[in-house]
User: What shape does this take?
Amino acid sequence: MKRILFISLFLSFIAFSSIDANAQCKNFAKKVCMLELVPYVHDGIYNAAVLQEGDAVELYKTFYSGQEYRIAICGVDELPQIHFQVMDKDRNVLYDNKKNDYSKVWDFILQTSQQLVISIQVNTTDELGDVIPTGCVAVLVGFMNKENSFDQF
Amino acid sequence: MKINLKFLPLVAVTVFATFLFSCSSDKSGEQGSETQDTNQVAEGDDMMNDINKAKQVFYSLPSPIETAMLIKRAGAKYDESLLNPVSNAKNYMGNKSMALNLGVYSADLSFASLFDQTQTSIKYMSASKTLADKIGILNAIDKTIMDRLESNINQKDSIIDIISETFMNSNSFLKENGRAEIAAMILVGGWIEGLYIACKVSQTTSSADELIDRIIDQRLSLGTLISLLEQYIEESKDIASVHEELLKLKQIFDKIEVTTSKIEPVTDPVTKVTTLKSTEERAPLDPAVYKALCKQVETYRNNIVK
Assistant: This one.
């Protein structure tokens, strides 16, 4: 009986920890990563996940011609650096943040509308420790609020 | 040995399931139980490895506010008669209808706010709140947001930020509470409404080339939308029926031939903004195809809002 009680409490703890991790992820995206988008307007779409070192995520999104965009990709301090690449539909690399000192943001404009792939990987560390670094990674997209025309080129 | 915290819930559930199983086994089955437990552990290990190797995939759609911005920049004029009347909000029952129409109202709200229709914006925010509450999206649009909207009514940038925040609240709430398929249906509703408004405006505007280009661009988002829905199609009949409607649209979009050249990224050394240079070739648009596309959009949209 005691064992059942202990396991129930343990599972409840795990379940609540998971909910708490999600809530922290939302707060991180909203209060930390969102600031990286300024002065761009966040498109309102929430993309975030709890990742650990070595994990990879891909995001597919259509970007429209003439619109100026900013992609912001942020990880919590507990995680190693976040490496991201932006690729076209044939997976040709258009941008690699590793070549830009692991920048969290990338600003761009397109001459034709395209579906792009954002490939994200949490780097691994050589440090030895008992716990694998785990935490929230948020991917936010913003656009410049220019309402009047597409004549930018 | 490093402890993998991310899979702790999964390990806990496996331990719990194994415990329940062993409790229910009788003595005569002890030997068999042990063998089965060993297999379960091996399968568990395999599952862990698969999860470790699996790459998570997100499909990010244009939000209603981005779609509204695209339509306005393409030269659309404001026409309130195109919006879904807020009085319809009370008619929507069931998760599918409420989610799709929350998306529709979100698009209408974005459209009205971008054209400085402040009173209409408040009305549509209120209608969105009604549906968000009925769906059970807690605090996505609370009193603070309504108050902020009313006090910033003459500051368009603030209003757009507030609308963006409400999308983020409902989006994140649904995804974090295991209701991502509802979030997907909201986006479908918003996307269809944007396309509907663009089609209607293009049919009554003399120089609608820019707007038609934007409509044709939506074939790209449609592909993303279909991929997103396919993630939930097995577990939701609602998603399956929405998916079916979108496939009808895809059949028409597929008749429009567009090819683009390889992209060449060029970064401005001063602004650090990269231009993705490429060209596009498009066969002349067959008016019959365009008419069929807009007709299909209108039929589906009217079916959603009825």
User: Anything to note?
Assistant: The CA atoms of residues 77 and 201 of chain B lie 7 Å apart. The first helix of chain B runs from residue 8 to 24. Residues 7-53 of chain B have pLDDT under 50 and may be disordered. Chain B touches chain A through 68 residues (CB under 8 Å).
